[in-house]
């Protein structure tokens, strides 16, 4: 029994160490995004992603003729345009409220500070692949003294897991009700449904998550194996924290599903603003697929892949010029919070530098 307790203690200390390392690495993401002389490889990757995005957009606009895109915006409904773009504000506030709910009872994070963190992370998400700016959010929470490094990362992991699962829930719901499905849509339904089941098992079962990460470590190459181990540590910490409070778990999960319903509703409002039409249930299937395409770490902030996906998926309902305009509006969903987060991002970086300077004395 004593040996079992010792092994458990060692495992827990190793988990805490891995999480601490992961949180401490968040500034490297910032360095790669904004350049500090040590991220040359990251700068090359970022340049390639920008070139890929520009190449895809150039091909799209060449095929549809940019003048037709201007005509679509000239004919848009100004009321629906204001309403749809204005939804960025309540969505940001709801996401901040959820972050406040995620905090433990002793956590020092007010609603205003949560808004600053969400907006600062939005700024980083514009230049980092696959929403990696949210990892820096954990770093900021740690450096600002809101949470320990391990718990901050666990909190962010759970937050992003809820986001992804909520998006998949609505995507599966829409795909199941989508009319006239062909083999491609059945394949996507199976793939998205499989991802949802996998995510729910990882979130709900410690035994399954341990088996999954163990298999991932076994097949991963050297450096990737270390990243998988760190992810396993943060996942285990997240399980211990959130499953210990069922009420918090239920509230945050319900809020995540509702927030993503509003995200997809906003995209439908974009369609109405462009004086086009898609059944709302069809939009629940198609817009998540385009968002998932934008999460692939191939382009700059999803620009290009998301636009091409919108043109492809919405072709039964409207033409390529309208879909290209919809792509620009979907990019605005990410661009507006990122612009709003610029001053707060500078504030957080200043606090981090001040903290490091005081530690060095």
Structure in words:
This protein has 361 residues and is mostly helical. The chain has one domain (2-344). The chain is 82% helix and 0% strand. The protein has 16 helices and no strands. The protein has helices at residues 2-24, 26-34, 40-64, 66-74, 78-86, 88-102, 111-125, 133-143, 149-177, 183-204, 206-219, 222-242, 246-273, 280-294, 305-313, 320-360. Helix 1 crosses helix 9 (149-177). The longest helix is centred in the C-terminal third of the chain and has 41 residues, at 320-360. The radius of gyration is 21 Å and the shape is globular. The termini are far apart.
- Helix fraction by DSSP (H/I, runs of at least 4): over 70%
Report the structural category. Answer: mainly alpha
Which strand-content bin applies to the residues? under 5%
The low-confidence runs, each spanning 5 or more residues with pLDDT under 50, are 1-38
């Amino acid at each position: 029994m004593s040996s079992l307790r010792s092994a458990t203690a060692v495992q827990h200390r190793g988990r805490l160490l891995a999480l601490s390392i992961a949180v401490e690495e968040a500034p490297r993401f910032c360095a790669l995004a904004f350049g500090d002389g040590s991220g040359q490889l990251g700068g090359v990757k970022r340049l390639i992603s920008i070139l890929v995005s520009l190449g895809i957009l150039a091909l799209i606009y060449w095929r549809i003729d940019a003048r037709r895109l201007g005509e679509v915006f000239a004919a848009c409904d100004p009321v629906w345009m204001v309403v749809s773009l204005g939804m960025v504000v309540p969505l940001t506030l709801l996401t901040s409220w959820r972050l406040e709910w995620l905090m433990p009872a002793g956590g020092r994070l007010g609603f205003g500070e949560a808004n600053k963190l969400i907006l600062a992370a939005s700024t980083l998400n514009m230049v980092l692949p696959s929403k990696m700016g949210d990892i820096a959010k954990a770093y900021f929470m740690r450096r600002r003294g809101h949470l320990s490094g391990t718990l901050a990362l666990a909190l962010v992991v759970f937050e992003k897991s809820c986001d992804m699962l909520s998006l998949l829930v609505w995507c599966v719901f829409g795909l199941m009700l989508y009319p006239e499905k062909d083999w491609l849509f059945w394949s996507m339904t199976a793939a998205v449904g499989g991802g949802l089941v996998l995510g729910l098992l990882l979130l709900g079962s410690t035994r399954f998550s341990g088996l999954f990460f163990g298999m991932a470590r076994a097949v991963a190459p050297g450096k990737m194996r270390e990243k998988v181990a760190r992810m396993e540590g943060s996942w285990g910490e997240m399980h211990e924290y959130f499953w210990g409070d069922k009420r918090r778990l239920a509230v945050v999960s319900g809020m995540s599903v509702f927030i993503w319903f509003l995200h997809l509703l906003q995209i439908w409002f974009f369609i109405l603003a462009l004086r086009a039409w898609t059944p709302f249930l069809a939009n629940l299937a198609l817009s998540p697929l385009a968002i998932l395409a934008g999460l692939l770490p191939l382009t700059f902030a999803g620009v290009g892949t998301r636009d091409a996906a919108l043109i492809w998926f919405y072709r039964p309902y409207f033409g390529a010029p309208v879909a290209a305009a919809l792509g620009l509006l979907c990019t605005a969903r990410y661009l507006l919070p990122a612009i709003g987060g610029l001053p707060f991002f500078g504030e957080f970086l200043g606090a981090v530098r001040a903290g490091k300077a005081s530690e060095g004395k």
